[in-house]
Amino acid sequence: MDPSPKIALVLGAGSARGLAHIGVLQVLVENSIPFDLIVGSSMGAMVGGLYACGTDMVMLGKMIDNMDLRVFFDVRLPRMGFIAGKKMDALLSLLTKKKTFAETLLPLHMMATDLISGDSVVLDSGPVADAIRASVSVPGVFSPVKKGDMILVDGAVTDRLPVKVARERGADMVIAVDVMFGGGKEINIRNTLDVIITSLDIMQKGQFEHVKGMSDVLIQPQVGGFSPRAFDKAAQIIALGRQAAEQSLEQIYSKLPPSQRP
Q: Which residue in 41, 42, 135, 227 is the catalytic one?
């Protein structure tokens, strides 16, 4: 018999560049590429979480392209973050249909970072919206999320591309999507968010080099030329995600056993 490997889809961090994950997921679904679990960090956690809660990726792409996401950024005088996150909480609750991890379409794991211990934290229980909110909480931009004795911030601080976590969760094959270290990289420092995000990128370069070889297929949309705050370029970023996924289909097919090839 032809054994079926356990396949993980790993979606990395990348702020607005992470919208490319939408395009990647669109192509994987359209071509019936199987995956058994999703592991996401930061924007990868958001897109993967929404998919696992049953959100249609085509409709999500259209919605984001026609939405001014700035209305959900409740800016305030900084205490622990410039953005309080209450409006974002409401949006995530709506988009996830208030589902818990126990109700998702497939197993889902999200990365966050505990400021108290300095450790990477895997979130896979409770409300999905709460976990997404923690995973995307860029330090100094969004207020951290308190969970028990932990104070959680962006998963990218400690694990931008959580391939190792996917392996630890039993994945035999990993399809990883990196939206940070592909081609077309440009550095434009214009505001506080650019400073913070670029600093995180620099911190994570070494970790990425270590884990990228642990994936079986590495998809890298050419979105490096976009600002981390380029949410107004959603259509272009999603299209580049689609392009990268389409170019990777043959490699994915070659890794699948015959019984799982479309």
A: 42
